[in-house]
Structures are given as structure tokens and as C-alpha cells.
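Before the break, one more example. Copy the sequence into your notebook; we will annotate it together after we see the structure.
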Amino acid sequence: MIFEVGETVVYPHHGAATITAVTTRTVKGEEKKYITLDMHGSDLVVELPVDNAELVGVRDVIDDAGVEAVYAVLRGEAEEEVSNWSRRFKANTEKMGSGDVYRVSEVVRDLWRRDQRAVLSAGEKRMLVKSRQIVVSELSLALGADEDAAIDALDDVLASSLPEPAAAE
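Here is what the structure looks like once it is written out:
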């Protein structure tokens, strides 16, 4: 990847970020190029060696086909749910850490559906909020929309994925 000031990328665990600076530093006598990332939706700023960008999973924002793929994941069947809370949390944490928007979308889908029928633990509620934030930040960029429009799009897709209630006879 070529990194330029003003470019928007996705950083695992935090979602969308804008490159605010590209600098060169001397580390142990060797010149290294660094990028400064300003995370959207928070005050977090990360400085990252360009050589490590791919290693940590920095990537470009998804395109229109990627948006449709995210929607397909959100509408898809939930994965077999582990009844043990700690195992479920660990599996979702691994998905979140992958930096893959499709895996994070699985976390949103599965936790959102679980929240519709049962009470989530405090840890799972925080994970749902965080995973939603990551997906919303990427959808906002990919759709060229503001955060509220991305939230509405996400909520509409999630709501459309619920089975229709049986008609009363």
C-alpha cells in the first residue's frame, strides 16, 4: 500500500482512520517511515511504522461489493452458538482482532440477534457496541454517508434479517 496524508484506511480493533502525517525517523541508525493515524469516532492517535502496517492488518476501506458482502453477512444465518459465555466471548474477541470487516459483522449479527431474545452480559454488550462502531465507521466511508446514515443502514439490514413473527390465528 502507498500511504498519503488525507487517505482513509481501516485499522483493526478501531475501525476507520485518516492518515494525518507521514514522517521519517531514525531508529537504531536506520531510517524508518511512519504514518500517524487519527481514529474516527475517538480521540485515539496511533503512530505506526509503514513496514508494520500490513502485519497489524491496516487495509483499504471496502468498496460497493464489500458493502453488499457485509449486508449479506448481517442477513445470514447466525453461527452455532456456544452456550458457555466465556467461550463465546473468546471466539468473538478473535473475530474482532482479525480486523476483517466481515468477521466483525458476524459478531454484530450474532450479538445483536442474541440481544433481541435474551439479555447480554455486560461484556457482550460492550463488545456489541464496539463491533457496531467498527462496522458503522467503515460503512460510513464506503457509502460516502455520515455516521447517522450508516447506523440507519446497519439497523435496517439487521431488522430485515429477523424472521417474520407468526400470524395469530
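The first strand starts at residue 8 and ends at 11. The beta strands are 8-11, 15-27, 30-39, 45-49, 59-60. Try to locate both features in your own notes.
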